[in-house]
Design a protein that fits this description.
About 65% of the residues lie in helices and about 0% in strands. The chain is an all-alpha fold.
């Protein structure tokens, strides 16, 4: 909204030129979403606590320390998504297709997560609705987003896969790009969802990933910077940086209430939406492979579940004491704060490694 106001009245007031700059609007989106969550967070938590009663169900086979968390309300992702949507609508250039695509994935995945959380709370069970139906809906949303991304760009680059470290090495996937991109988005959404198991564990790595991809989106959408760094120029993706800024701000606000002992859990409402958002950003900016590096912590969490399930089905034995892997370390005697902070450190190191690929060409 403010971007359009600046275009409309810039002739009358030169100071409005500042709203043209993505960097300014990104910082403004961060501050706006943070303030929004700080102000409305307590009211949202109180409302959810009254409506949910017993709160999020706790797994009976989980770490014993989690039983004390019984009664904590979930669906805290509503706080984050509200702040992100309001802030993005205020500060992003709504004429950008990429803004709407990323918001569509974020809200679509958030709606799926919300329904899953709703079933868990009302049924007092940690199981939501059918996994197959859930995945089918996620792939549908992701496919629509990838199709829009492919059609918005210039063929054949818009349907191509790029590789870090190589400027000219690209593979045109054709229509298969929709399938590949959908797998990336759905995989990212569920990987973040699996990571969300301890107070503050998921939200900080999400903010780190959002900051990293906000920078990537800005650089990829700027012809001068992309030429200097020899990364692929994707016109229009710079506006995604504003949404990433909103994610960081809303995440900071949420972390205020999610810090141990958590007053609210993110739930699938938030984790699925935020993971989908990061995945959609990676696909839009042509940095799908870099996502596996920056989001390496999420990949590790997802792979631990895959390995655990496959091992048990094939051999009847478990590789980890409990999956996802953060529970494995809890079972080994690490305190919750040790797991969370050490995983944050890993997330920072992986983000730096991923960003290093921008210059190593």
């Amino acid at each position: 909204m403010f971007y359009y106001l600046s275009q409309e009245f810039v002739g009358d007031l030169a100071a409005l030129n500042i709203f043209r700059y993505i960097t300014f609007r990104t910082v403004a989106a961060l501050v706006t979403s943070a303030i929004f969550v700080f102000i409305f967070g307590p009211k949202i938590i109180s409302s959810l606590r009254v409506r949910q009663g017993k709160g999020q169900p706790i797994r009976a086979d989980g770490p014993e320390t989690h039983f004390a968390k019984a009664g904590t309300p979930t669906m805290g992702g509503l706080m984050i998504l509200s702040g992100v949507v309001v802030s993005s609508l205020l500060w992003a250039n709504l004429g950008s297709v990429y803004v709407w695509v990323v918001l569509m994935v974020t809200l679509g995945f958030g709606a799926i997560g919300f329904y899953d959380d709703f079933l868990k709370v009302t049924k007092a069970s940690h199981k939501g609705f059918s996994g197959r139906v859930r995945l089918a809906l996620e792939f549908l949303i992701a496919a629509i987003a990838c199709f829009a991304i492919m059609n918005n760009g210039q063929a054949p680059f818009s349907s191509s896969l790029t590789f870090p470290f190589f400027k000219d090495w690209i593979i045109d996937l054709g229509f298969f790009f929709v399938v590949f991109g959908s797998v990336v988005i759905v995989g990212a959404g569920n990987a973040v969802n699996l990571t969300d198991g301890l107070d503050g564990l998921a939200i900080v790595p999400v903010m780190i990933a959002a900051a990293s991809f906000g920078l990537i989106a800005y650089l990829s959408g700027n012809f001068v910077f992309s030429e200097y760094l020899q990364i692929h120029y994707v016109q229009g993706t710079g506006e995604i940086a504003v949404i990433c800024g909103a994610i960081i701000g809303a995440g900071l606000g949420f972390l205020w209430f999610n810090a141990p002992p958590a007053a609210i859990f993110m739930g699938d409402t938030g984790s699925l939406a935020l993971g989908g958002m990061i995945g959609a950003t990676a696909v839009a900016t042509k940095h799908e492979i870099v996502l596996a590096i920056i989001g390496g912590l999420f990949v590790m969490e997802a792979m631990s579940v895959i390995i655990q399930v496959a091992s048990f089905k094939l051999t009847g034995k478990r590789v980890f004491r409990m999956a996802p892997i953060h529970h494995h370390f809890e079972k080994k005697g690490w305190t919750e704060s040790q797991v969370v902070i050490r995983f944050w450190i890993i997330a920072v190191l992986l983000a730096l490694a991923g960003l290093a690929t921008l210059k190593l060409r």
